[in-house]
Amino acid sequence: MSGQQTPPGPPYPPTTAGLGGQATVSTDVPVCSVLLLFYIGSAVGNMFIFQANRRKGHKFVISAALFGFSMARILTLCLRIGVATHPHNVSLAIAANIFVNAGILVVYVVNLVLALRIIRARQPNLGWKQSVRILARVLYALVFVALVLVITFVVLSFYTLSESLKQACRDAQLAALTYLFVFTTVPFFILGLTYSLKPAQDAQTFGTGQMRTKGIIILISTCLCVLNSGFKTGANWESPRPISDPAWYQKKAAFYIFLFVVEIIILYFFIAMRIDRRFFVPNGSSKRKSFADLRLGTGHTGTTNSDKDSEKETGVV
């Protein structure tokens, strides 16, 4: 009997090299175990900050979102360990692939949310415009659409042997990944516009610390996210390679450094910079289109020259 034998499935095992290559017990289990400790620490830290602030009436939902992201990454690494110990389980590999692509989106959105707070404080007439609010919502919605596309076509690519359908899946994934890369760069443009203009006469403040420091924090975080997303997007745009001959960017070192290590740096950078203090805004600010703290009866959020005074006023841990 001649002809190429059809592989068992569906789902069918991949025939081209992917990011991180084939997980192995000797390499991936120790590396994932170490990374798990960092993500567990981030999850604990962010949840502690969120709960401590919540008990004092300071609801900083972003801390809870970063806790959720850390938990998602814990699951991602557990799945990676599962793939290493069960190398022939294609369904497990699909789940691991999906979570690798999905988790970091939380940080992309956080960067944009915080950048918008800066422009709304320094340039209220511009930052609170309805058109800006609509554009932000469209960008958020497209992130969700991109995520759905990535998940859908990643799964579909494992359930077909048709080369034309596989190419269509690849094209859809590339379109989604490219949009996500563009999305990560949006805070650059917001910060550039914000700090290229003089603060408006009705400029406000929020949280603790100087506005310039807030801008630097978002700039650093955005640079790291662009590095993360750019690596992932660029690697996927490269021509597919045989699974037996991966490129340098598809090997384990690049996979763990450009994705997971970069994410861990961002998470601990946010904790160290106490963004829950610096970027806190009073509840209902979006509805009022103002960061004024009504409890204080003033036109600002109660930020003083001393972080200590500001923490007392806002009830921050």
The termini sit apart by 73 Å
Count of β-strands: 0
User: Helix/strand-derived class?
Assistant: mainly alpha
Give the overall pLDDT as a whole number: 87
Number of discrete domains: 1
Given the structure, what is the number of helices?
12
Largest sheet: none
Summarize the structure.
The protein is 68% helix and 0% strand. The chain contains twelve helices and no strands.
Walk me through this protein's architecture.
The structure is a single chain. This protein has 317 residues and is an all-alpha fold. It has a single domain (25-239, 247-314), classed as Rhopdopsin 7-helix transmembrane proteins (Up-down Bundle), CATH 1.20.1070. The chain has 12 helices and no strands. The chain has helices at 25-55, 61-85, 90-102, 105-122, 124-127, 130-157, 163-196, 211-237, 252-272, 275-278, 285-288, 307-314. Helix 1 (25-55) packs parallel to helix 9 (252-272) and helix 2 (61-85) packs antiparallel against helix 3. The termini are far apart. The model is unreliable at 301-316 (pLDDT under 50).
Chain-wise SSE layout:
Elements: H1 25-55, H2 61-85, H3 90-102, H4 105-122, H5 124-127, H6 130-157, H7 163-196, H8 211-237, H9 252-272, H10 275-278, H11 285-288, H12 307-314
Helix pairs in contact: 1-2, 1-9, 2-3, 3-6, 4-7, 4-8, 6-7, 7-8, 8-9
Transmembrane segments: 28-48, 60-82, 94-119, 139-162, 174-195, 216-233, 253-271
Protein name: G-protein coupled receptors family 3 profile domain-containing protein
Keywords: Membrane, Transmembrane, Transmembrane helix
Keywords:
single chain; 317 residues; mainly alpha; Rhopdopsin 7-helix transmembrane proteins; 12 helices; disordered C terminus
